[in-house]
Every structure is written in C-alpha cells, then in structure tokens.
C-alpha cells in the first residue's frame, strides 16, 4: 500500500512546517490540495499583488488566479498528468461575510476573471466544478482557493450534457464520464436567466431561480429550499441518465446550504430521493456559505458509478451511525468516501472529550481536542471497513473560525505521523456548523484498492 500512495512535490516548491502535501497520487487518482496565490512562505505571492500606487490598473482576482493555475500546472505535471484528466474542481471564493452588513443569500463574489484564467488552463474541457463563497482561507488577502481531483487511468473524460437543461455558459458540461465513473458539477435551482426584465419581476424580488423552483411565500408550509432541492435532484437525475447511470449509483454528494435553518426542508426532500440511508451516497453537508445565484439556497454535486460497477458500491456498516440521513461512509471501487464528521456525541452534542472542562476553559486547545475526537470517530469507521485510517488521501476541513486550525493540525500531524501527508483544503464558513460548539467538520476520502 505505501508505494501506491505517493506525495507529489514539484521541484523547487517550498516545504511547509505543517502536515501538508501539494498533492497525493493514489493508484490512478490524483488529489491536489487547496491552492491559492500564496508563495507558501510569507503569504500572498508578490506577483499576485496589485501595486498600492495603482490599485485600479490591475484586477486582483485575475492576478491571483494566474498564480494559482501556474502552481496547479506544476503540480499536475509533476504527477505525470494532464489538465484534461482533471474530473472535479472545487473553488472557494472569499465572500464579504466579515462585513457587519452581510446577510444570508447576499451575493458578494465576482469570479469572472478567475473563470477566464481557469479557461486558459482547461482549454479542451472545463471539468465539473463547484463554486462556493466562504468567509476566509488560510492566506491573508487571498480571494480564491481551489482543489482538484484527476483520474490517470489512460482514458480521457467524455463530456456529459442533458438536452434541454439551462446552462450558465456556452460549452458548459454538466458532467463527465470516465470509465466506470461519472462526475457531476454542483447544480443550482437556476435557469441562468432569472426574472429580470420579465412580467414575473414587476418591481418585486429579483431572483435567479428557475420558474419551476420558485415559491410564492403566500402560505404556511411554503419552503423554498425543499422546492429547490427537488428541482436540482431532478436535473442531476436527468444528467446521470444521459451518462448511462442513475442517482441510485451516487457514491458521494457535495451539498452546500446558504442558511442552516433550511436543514429540515432539505432533509425531507433528500429522503424522498434516497429513502434508505444505507443506500444513499456518503454526504458532506456544509452550512453558512454563499451560493452563486440570487435566491438560490442550495447547491449539490455528485460522484457516481456506472451500472457495470454497481457491485463496487457498498455502505460501510459499523463504527459510527450518523444522526442525519446518510451512511457513515461508502466504499466505491478503490475509494472510501466518508460523510462529514464533527466532534459530536449523539446524546449531548459536542462531545465532552472534545472541549476543555467548563470551569477550566484554558486547559486544552479546542481545535486539537475536536480534531482528535473527529479522527477517533473516523478511525472507528475505517476499522469497520477493514482499512487503516492512514490511507486517507484527501481531506476538506471546514472551520467556523480559522484560529482553530493550528490546534487541529497538531492532532492531524499525530494521526498521520510516519506516513504520507494527505492532500488538504481548509476554509472558514460563516461562523456556525450544525451543532453548537462544533468548530471543525472533516470530509475524508480513503484509498483502498482491494476492490479495484
């Protein structure tokens, strides 16, 4: 196993004093850590900065994106891969959440020039992606961070697009098919037209929602998130069918909610599409983020298997039973996708072991205690799957406050001492996870080729 999991370090790249690898090659997979326009030593790279004397002559997002994709190109090349083998991109844009005037459902991100730089890198096919607004990243002044997943099995991704579905731009692909895998972009309940300039506007609320996803708000029980979730899953189902598969073979779901108060409405609709949690995909469900179209409250992306690989999808039973409607983890071919993990105890919320004693608040490092407990839960799930937790190859870590990061990385370093350092992305959401007191949520992927 160790020889099948390799750290990827481009020549000349600075080695950080944290448990970090720029990327991990695991069999035919490449997982690239979150990248920004940092020089990895002092913060924002000099070539990404806009001169203070001429602040309006250059665009900061464009400069940062150029530096970001320069580094991504070096990492992908060092792994022996090509840009067209990338099958998923996650973008984390820094929204204006620190402003006291910020409100849920605000739109504060302008990603136009980032997308222009991205298209200069992906010249043949723009991979499936998500774009989410967050409160912050680890680099002061960074406007965007992005991580990447690639498949290096010799095939090239084939574009998948469902006829008749609205698209945000010409040439946009809702997903790609590559061998036994299908990857679908994060989808919103938008027709990419909205109600501007239509009779549906008439001076009322301006939204980017598709007409079929709108609610009137005129009656009790009118839940916008439920309608939007159903609309999105219907669209994703059509794209999956166009690829030759179905949502029944979804193995991982990436779900983002702008407002945590929408949880129950979302979950009710989700359970209609996936009535048996043991057959549902593993799921990361992230609250308090910015969604990229006015009025849109939820975004959903999926990884799926093709029918000929259906036997390679199995839920992991044992170790931990989530309170929400998903399995603790799903084995899919040579990967094991975990559902999101927090330092929770089913009976009390935040686990006692994950926080200092109430009367001794300074006797412990909160980030370290929470991450240690999260990894304890993850280890129990890995044991139930018959896998060593040290086979984690990718992690996305969501913080309510990035001041918890340093302590969390101490626990992370302990867990992965003596082996490879997984690819990691860390971002800060807008202050609140699902359980009061929980400040860290982990989304983990393990590599285990026994089923390949």
Automatic annotation (TrEMBL):
<dbReference type="Pfam" id="PF01042">
    <property type="entry name" value="Ribonuc_L-PSP"/>
</dbReference>
<protein>
    <submittedName>
        <fullName>RidA family protein</fullName>
        <ecNumber>3.5.-.-</ecNumber>
    </submittedName>
</protein>
<keyword id="KW-0378">Hydrolase</keyword>
<dbReference type="GO" id="GO:0016787">
    <property type="term" value="F:hydrolase activity"/>
</dbReference>
<dbReference type="InterPro" id="IPR006175">
    <property type="entry name" value="YjgF/YER057c/UK114"/>
</dbReference>
<dbReference type="InterPro" id="IPR035959">
    <property type="entry name" value="RutC-like_sf"/>
</dbReference>
